[in-house]
UniProtKB/TrEMBL annotation:
Keywords: Glycosidase, Hydrolase. This is Family 31 glycosyl hydrolase, alpha-glucosidase. GO terms for biological process: carbohydrate metabolic process. It comes from Solitalea canadensis (strain ATCC 29591 / DSM 3403 / JCM 21819 / LMG 8368 / NBRC 15130 / NCIMB 12057 / USAM 9D). InterPro entries: DUF5110, Gal_mutarotase_sf_dom, GH, Glyco_hydro_31_AS, Glyco_hydro_31_C, Glyco_hydro_31_N_dom, Glyco_hydro_31_TIM, Glyco_hydro_b.
Length: 823
């Protein structure tokens, strides 16, 4: 078949025979639903014999297999297939509790199909063929089976391989799927989900660190999502083998997927996060700049790095300790030679505004004199193989055993192990090597047994959730130990839902311009895959960036939700000052911009947490109906209001920028542009194209060297004129506690509107939190008239200033309700 040979190394050998003979099955399955080619037997669903109803669940049978159709909400429908008629226990690590809304559900039978309908979507089950399709409220097909769901027995392990094939139209494109290092549009890609340690990964290398079995289909401006909640190794084909279909199949478990209706792409992402959750509000300091290296040691080196940040007045909030802070790489210990008094060191860092984040890996050294190993061994907390021997493998400490994080008792134990680190002054935890990675073998053998929260399973089932359950244990342990302080965690591996417990980074990347481009794409992809709190190793983990590449990466990093520089120990150091001038000054300028924008970014996180909106949004999400945007991948919005156009080419001093429809302002020059077309924008090294949507109110803070350095006396509100109506949001709370869950927060909505000779701004406030500052300092750009009169809540403001470009500045109380600016 076309392209088959080139892709054969991407799939398991036992799948190749059946894949090679898809064309044979295509001809036969309707007449003979059992198709045998060589040693492989695939069985397709036959015609529907009957169905039963159980509330919003409907179970259809072909006489031997069963398919359950469940209405989860007006826009989400779940499909499960039990090959031999018995469903597995209904359990998921991905899902969260959520109050889904179901308005009504109606089932209707016609001569040829069953129709299950909500006000938004209809699921059709064809009687003769068991083909399933989904239609919107206007009866338009959004997604449909190309052939019936099918399965084949796994004679080696038991259970079944399960398959689903969907029709792919000529105009359909695909997105999401987590951290894949490839073009943003996934059409023409074949991918595997199997968490893998991929040091210095290359473009198009697959698989990578995370498994996010969720994709978005976009066709003629309308979107839907497919979330296949199966933790086994899973394969996706986006119109590779055949241009008229997409397929996904798993090496075990059930065929269990959710159809998520749009029709807008952002609606699909929101509803996916209704299923799998959003990030909790991070501590404000975690949104600052982080400095990391493998490794900073001894303690004098750590102190020197911290002091240099403060001396050079380059803002920074967190410094990381990699594996060399441990005693022989034993987790939860300190190397007393390098760090003879860790509490004193951490207290000193805290005094100058630094939070400390330490690495913790899952491998526990086999050493009967090591307290963590002794506890784990005594309580039977480590993973065992099928013959009951402990699973062992070599990682950094040497010979190790590994906790079974799918056991709730183990997670509780693991979370409690952080007590001494927390008491010493550690603020955050970095979980690494948790794919899980093992030197030599790559990962655990398939026959390792896991508790799986009492649902039992081999490593084939638990592999993709191992890292997620490790960071879950970490997050839940820190939540208990840090006494109403929000934990900060970062993980390398994960599965759908990991965002409820952690931030992520894109792994061990390379210092190259190609990887700078990949960083841009991968963060956009992660964001629309439900993982907004993401970033990359700024400058590249391995390899040697020059000053230009590092500086351009810093500029991009300002607009990734997690902003962390990190590098390997065999490379030159790469702090913001490492490349001398002019790079140091430019890096300082952009890191300061990050700190100015923290109120805006924090508000965007609130919109993610509460309203399920992604923080980073690709251009195709803004204008999906414009087909060329399906392939735009180098621009994105940061939150809703700021368009970011990073410089991704060496030596570039300008770049072509596409501005979506509407009016946009250049953040630096305030020049106004009419969108819907491309412009060439000057971009010398000390600049990067950044645009603000007309009508935006962007809150900015005074520059601090670290979050909480001082209490600001004023909040800066920057507003860009529009002749239409627009709203913006500012969210505030304590910044590091869970009080927001008891409504101790303040959500402010600014509504602006311009007309001939006037501009108004109204403020509405909800919540119980009171910020300490008393004033807003207003700056309004782009006013098309000469200002003669300003009123705040009906009282004239006599003190205001207008510069040569017509930029207006004045101050008001933070509690104003209405401002009027008049010609």
């Amino acid at each position: 078949m076309d392209n088959y040979t080139d892709l054969s190394n991407m799939i398991d050998p036992e799948l190749k025979v059946s894949d090679q003979n898809d064309h044979i099955e295509e001809e036969k399955f309707l007449n003979n639903p059992i198709v045998t080619v060589g040693p492989v037997t695939k069985q397709y669903l036959k015609s529907v014999k009957n169905y039963v109803t159980d509330g919003n669940r409907f179970v259809f049978s072909d006489g031997s297999s069963k398919v359950q159709i469940s209405v989860i909400s007006d826009e989400i429908i779940r499909v499960r297939m039990a090959p031999q008629g018995t469903f597995l226990a209904d359990f998921s690590y991905a899902l969260q509790e959520f109050a889904h809304e179901i308005t009504s559900v109606v089932i209707k039978e016609t001569p040829h199909e069953y129709l299950i309908s909500t006000p938004k979507v209809t699921c059709s089950i064809a009687k003769e063929t068991f083909l399933i399709s989904f239609l919107d409220e206007k009866g338009r097909v959004m997604n449909e089976d190309a052939r019936p769901m099918h399965y084949e027995e796994n004679v080696q392990f038991g259970g079944y391989y399960v398959y689903c094939s969907k029709v792919c139209t000529d105009t359909e494109d695909f997105y999401a799927m987590g951290d894949k290092p490839t073009e943003f549009n996934l059409r023409g890609k074949r991918l595997v989900l199997w968490n893998t340690d991929t040091y210095a990964f290359a473009k198009n290398q697959d698989p990578l660190y995370r498994s996010i079995p969720f994709y978005i289909g976009l066709n003629e401006g309308r979107s839907y999502g497919i979330f296949s909640d199966n933790t086994f190794k899973t394969h996706y084909d986006f119109a590779v083998e055949r241009k008229d279909r997409t397929s996904f199949w798993s090496d075990g478990g059930e065929l269990n997927y959710y159809y998520i209706h749009g029709p807008q792409m952002i609606d699909v992402v929101k509803r996916y996060s209704h299923l799998t959750g959003t990030h909790a509000m991070p501590p404000m300091w975690a949104l600052g700049f982080h400095q990391c290296r493998w490794s900073y040691y001894p303690d004098q080196k750590v102190k020197s790095i911290a002091r240099t940040f403060r001396e050079k007045k380059i803002p920074c909030d967190a410094i990381y300790l990699d594996i060399d802070y441990m005693n022989g790489y034993r987790c939860f210990t300190w190397n007393n030679t390098y760090f003879p008094n860790p509490k004193q060191m951490l207290d000193g860092l805290q005094d100058i505004g630094f939070k400390t984040v330490v690495i913790i890996d899952p491998g526990i050294k086999v050493d009967d004199n090591y307290w963590v190993f002794k506890e784990g061994k005594a309580n039977n907390y480590f993973c065992r193989r099928c013959d009951d021997y402990f699973m062992e493998g070599n990682v950094w400490p040497g010979r190790c055993q590994f906790p079974d994080f799918t056991n709730p008792k183990v997670r509780t134990w693991w979370g409690g192990l952080f007590k001494e680190l927390v008491e010493t002054g550690v603020d955050g935890v970095w979980n690494d090597m948790n794919e899980p990675a093992v030197f030599g073998s790559g990962s655990f053998p398939d026959d390792v047994r896991h508790n799986f929260d009492h649902h039992r399973g081999s490593h084939r089932k638990a592999h993709n959730v191992y890292g997620m359950q490790m960071v879950r244990a970490t997050y839940e342990g820190l939540s208990k130990l840090q006494k109403n302080k929000r934990p900060f965690t970062i993980t390398r591996a994960g599965y759908s839902g990991v965002q409820r417990y952690s931030s992520v980074w894109t792994g061990d990347n390379v210092a190259s311009w190609e990887h700078l481009k990949l960083a841009n794409i991968m963060c956009q992809r992660l964001s629309i895959s439900g993982i907004s709190f993401c970033g990359t190793d700024i400058g590249g983990f391995t390899g040697e960036p020059d000053g230009e590449l590092f500086t351009r990466w810093i500029q991009l990093g300002v607009f990734t939700p997690l902003m962390r520089a990190h590098s390997a120990g065999d490379t030159r150091e790469r702090e913001p000052w490492s490349f001398g001038e002019p790079y140091e000054t430019i890096c300082r300028k952009f890191i300061e911009l990050r700190y100015k924008l923290l109120p805006y970014l924090y508000s965007a996180f609130w919109q993610h947490h509460k309203y399920h909106l992604p923080v980073v949004r690709p251009v195709v999400m803004l204008e999906p109906e414009i087909h060329i945007n399906h392939y735009r991948e180098d621009e994105f919005t940061f939150g809703e209001k700021i368009l970011v156009c990073p410089i991704l080419e060496a030596g570039a001093v300008n770049r072509k920028v596409y501005l979506p429809n509407g009016t946009w302002y250049n953040y630096w020059t305030q020049q106004k542009y009419k969108g819907g077309k491309e412009f060439v924008i000057s971009s010398p090294l000390d600049s990067m194209p950044i645009f603000v949507k007309a009508g935006s109110v962007i809150p900015e803070a005074p520059v601090m060297q670290y979050v909480g350095e001082f209490e600001p006396e004023v909040m800066f509100l920057k507003t860009w004129y529009t002749d239409k109506e627009a709203t913006s949001l500012l969210y505030e709370d304590h910044g590091d506690t869970f009080a927001y869950k008891q409504d101790i927060y303040l959500e402010k909505t600014f509504r602006v509107k311009g007309s001939n000779g006037s501009f108004t701004m109204e403020q509405k406030m909800e919540g119980l939190y009171t910020p300490r500052y008393e004033k807003y300092q207003h700056t309004i750009y782009g006013l098309p008239f000469k200002v003669r009169h300003i009123e705040v809540d009906g009282v004239e403001i006599k003190r205001f200033a207008i510069d040569e470009q017509g930029v207006l500045e004045f101050s008001s109380t933070k509690k104003f309700k209405k401002i009027e600016v008049l010609a």
